[in-house]
Amino acid sequence: xxxxxxxxxxxxxxxMGDDFAKLQNAKxxxxxxxGVGSFCLDCLVRSGVKEITIVDFDTYDATNQNxxxxxxxxxxxxxxxxxxxxxxxxxxxxxxxxxxxVWDFDFESYDVVLDAIDDTKAKLALAQKCHKKLISxxxxxxxxxxxxxxxxxxxxSYGDRxxxxxxxxxxxxxxxxxxxxxxxxxxxxTKEKGSFMGVTATFGLVMCAQxxxxxxxx
Length: 218
Fold this sequence. Notes:
Layout lengths: L1 H6 L2 H7 L3 H6 L1 E5 L5 H10 L4 E6 L22 H8 L4 E4 L4 H6 L7 E4 L4 H11 L3 E4 L11 E5 L7 H12 L7 E5 L12 H21 L1
Parallel strand pairs: 1-2, 1-4, 2-3, 4-5, 5-7
Antiparallel strand pairs: 6-7
């Protein structure tokens, strides 16, 4: 068994070289573990990140099963507690992420703050408080083309009504700093909240990749 354990990260070590140690020593907080966050989490764990805190308040229901990892095994259960069964090293916080929680929480010890939530006011507070180490996901629903997923700074993002609203509200608050966002340039193809795992998972995997890049460059 020990031999297999030692081989677990061999392939990522080949890519990261000496920087792999940075992954193992990094401390990451992931806000939201739904369609985007659950795939980001799995990617982080499989890449060798050891210290991950996840924050969510929701429970799994049947409508999550087309796009959220492990959801079919835990219907009715609290997401963060269910995910800890699969990733025992996680630190979990079972709470609703709203604007006040963001302002009250201490993010100082984390190297990267990952935002995979939908609450507009909480996202704005995160930008104002954590922009130097923030990676924020915009809307992944209502789309079918994963090749349109992009990474840029907040002011260069486009093609997403949700992102447009965030930019507008930040300007109203006098915020002009840059931070990293993940967005899709694909126009929404429905008014309903339809979701395709090919897109939501891509958002999560791109978020993980960007987090690893930030850690490597730190």
